[in-house]
Design brief:
With 252 residues, this protein is an alpha/beta fold. It has nine helices and ten strands. The protein folds into two domains: 167 residues, 3-Layer(aba) Sandwich (Rossmann fold), CATH 3.40.50.300; 70 residues, no CATH class.
Length: 252
């Protein structure tokens, strides 16, 4: 059984169809990249899956349950986490405090009952563990505004991980990064998938990142899926080359 499924999923804004009858199936443990030119519908698809937008038509199922149209907090509670295109942190909070707040929110959302002191200790321990896993242990007490762009993105991924997701959606996780930062993020994401057994679904424009990470690539164009398969197959697909990859050899 697929972990995530969309069936005939559509999202329209007036006469503009942003997501057009998308059938997508993501298996547990899979690392899948969604690619396509700007305006292809990738982020809108993520917004519908995570409850930020209600679909015009179609269905979203997660681990067999129909979650179509559920609000974001209910989607998170069921095990879907997400990071966004734009870093969304409280700049004056430290990395540790940012994750501690996220952990506390998750515990309250799931109804976990502990004495206040015990809950605070548990939240700090979990936040500290996440920072170490993200390679940010030495930056735990620094305000987020003083961190590098790559480290800020890592903290944001930590905020999503605080909810203990089974499926993590990442929207352009390497956007704005230089080559060294991008390589570090690729290593981090690969490690999360392998160590924690996370299922990852990411939107990414950097084709070097896509081919370094993805076990499977889904290509969107004008709101529709035009190709879906392993990287080597997608790379050689003439329709994909015409729609997105450009001239022969692009993205290699």
């Amino acid at each position: 059984m697929a972990m995530l499924e969309t069936n005939g999923l559509m999202k329209s804004f007036g006469r503009m169809v942003a997501v057009d009858r998308v059938d997508l199936s993501v298996r547990e443990g899979e690392l899948t990249a969604v690619i396509g030119p700007n305006g292809a519908g990738k982020t809108t698809l993520f917004n519908v899956v995570t409850g930020k937008l209600r679909p015009t038509a179609g269905q979203v199922r997660f681990r067999g349950e129909d979650i179509t149209g559920l609000p974001p907090h209910a989607v998170i509670r069921r095990g879907i986490g997400r990071s966004f295109q734009v870093t969304n942190l409280f700049p004056e909070l430290s990395a540790l405090d940012s994750l501690r707040v996220a952990v506390l929110s998750e515990r309250r959302l799931t109804g976990r009952v502990l004495p206040a002191g015990a809950l605070a200790r548990e939240a700090e321990e979990e936040a500290d563990r996440l920072l170490r896993e993200l390679g940010l242990g030495e930056h735990r007490d620094r305000p987020c505004r003083t961190l590098s762009h790559a480290d800020q993105r890592a903290v944001e991924i930590g905020l999503a991980l605080a909810a203990r997701p089974r499926l993590l959606l990442l929207d352009e996780p390497t956007a704005g990064m230089g080559p060294e930062e991008t390589a570090a993020m690729v290593t981090l994401l690969r490690g999360l998938a392998r160590r924690d057994g996370l299922t990852l679904l990411l939107v990414e424009h950097d084709m070097h990142v896509v081919f370094a990470l993805a076990e499977r690539i889904v290509v969107m164009h004008h709101g529709r899926i035009i190709a879906d398969g392993p990287p080597v197959t997608v790379r050689e697909n003439p329709g994909v080359r015409e729609a997105y990859l450009g001239e022969p050899g692009a993205g290699s």
